Description:
This protein is mostly helical. It has one domain (14-251). Helices cover 76% and strands 0% of the residues. It has helices at 14-88, 96-103, 117-125, 133-167, 173-188, 192-201, 210-224, 228-251. α1 packs across α3. The termini are far apart. The model has no long low-confidence stretch (mean pLDDT 87).
Amino acid sequence: MEVHHHPKVxxxxxxxxxxxxxxxxxxxxxGFIAENIREDITDHRRAxxxxxxxxxxxxxxxxxxxxxxxxxxxxxxxxxxxLNLLSSKDIDKIPPGELYWYGLFCGAHGSFIPNDATxxxxxxxxxxxxxxxxxxxxVEKYDRFCRSLRRIEETNDNIYTEVxxxxxxxxxxxxxxxxxxxxxxxxxAFSQSGIDSFIASNPPLLSNDKILFNQLxxxxxxxxxxxxxxxxxxxLLKQANVLLGELNKxxx
Length: 252
């Protein structure tokens, strides 16, 4: 009978097993860390791309909001004068030129349309989370302010239509256009003499009916008594500037 001799297998001691385990563990761990670093770098690059686009949107918004605020602040000042005239004097004793000039701003109207393409893309894809926590919160807060201002505008749109209807019964269109041209020219280069010249021309009214003027005053008062347009747009402008600062700080 043949006797088979098995090769002698050298047994590993605990230290060798531990070193093998340690090497495998370190390799897996380093791979995991490397993958996380790679993902973090990729996410940061994507966030930076979005930030750059969002900054451009916000710059356009702040420019639009500055004009929006100026326009409504100016208009409200003229409306206050118009309402004071109606409450302090009889219609027949107010120069028609003043009624036309100050009454022009009863029809003040404007819309803020945010440049929100970048935000909507990030929101729909869930990539808003790429931003730092506070920045992401402030981006969504800015969007809420935008929607709040739009709701105010929608509420005012209905009253605005009624204002135009009543105003059309009092003021002649062609003289309103003349007053509006003076206003537009003054936006480019202010000229008090141009305003004074129009007021002094005293264009004729279609009606000096007290009931119509009272209706107009009540409608205008409803639109501008709290000046919500300027209040909301001013808050929106401040939030836009806060967000611009954060994006520039976070993403250079």
